[in-house]
Amino acid sequence: MLAHFLHRIHxxxxxxxxxxxxxxxxxxxxxxxxxxxxxxxxxxxHDVSAGGPSAALILLHGHGVAGDDxxxxxxxxxxPPHIALVFPEGPLIxxxxxxxxxxxxxxxxxxxxxxxxxxxxxxxRAARVASSGCEGARAxxxxxxxxxxxxxxxxxxxxxxxxxSQGAILSLDSVLHDDRPWAGxxxxxxxxxxxxxxxxxxxxxxxxxxxISHGMSDPILPFAAARRLYEEFSQAGWNASFxxxxxxxxxxxxVVSVLSNTVRGWLGQSPTMQREANARRARExxxxxxxxxxxxxxxxxxxxxx
Length: 306
Description:
The chain is an alpha/beta fold.
């Protein structure tokens, strides 16, 4: 599938420039795919003529926003050039804006009950209301992850999952219910899911590195619940970091800086990981009696870094 993916990138007419040899190359292409029924933007930050990405960061938007709400982060995050940034659109249309645009979500949100819980200071109730319905979105998102791995030719160790607000809740829920060894998890202004389930799943599966960020004056999802989420991760022995910030419901530049440094650490030091993944891929291909195409980073034996 990687060769097919690269063919589709090079077949696109925009984003082309001539290099020193006179050949056209793709410069920072943003392509659109349909994976498991989800329209998905994939941003590549390097010349893909030598091979595809060797890692990916998936970011899920929140509720009631445009499907490309987080795409701006592809210009803000300072990441090594071998990392693809992946932005799927939620399947739920919350509101038709017009001119082909729509506000989207991952499952219906009860905004009235959320406001009541927040206004009355019931943090745990607000968290329960916010995450109610998440399990219904899980199956499609897990299918999306399967499709993305196949499309990009990546292993879980080469992929970071993350999201903002409702997207953070879905990313967390999916990691808890999927035992693949993801490279990391980013929970940006999210909240607790079902607390008994959270505790049971945290102790059942191997941990992955986690970053949790939250505004101390967030009027939509309670700061106290985010802090509790961090405490639950830590008590379960997961490698979790908490990044509180002065502000409300958003992703300030201070958090973007932390994300850049963290994701570089998780995915940037990848030559050894890539060699191991390539060797495992070759073994699996041999066992299945097939020849696999070169993996990202396998063509010249290196992976790009800043």
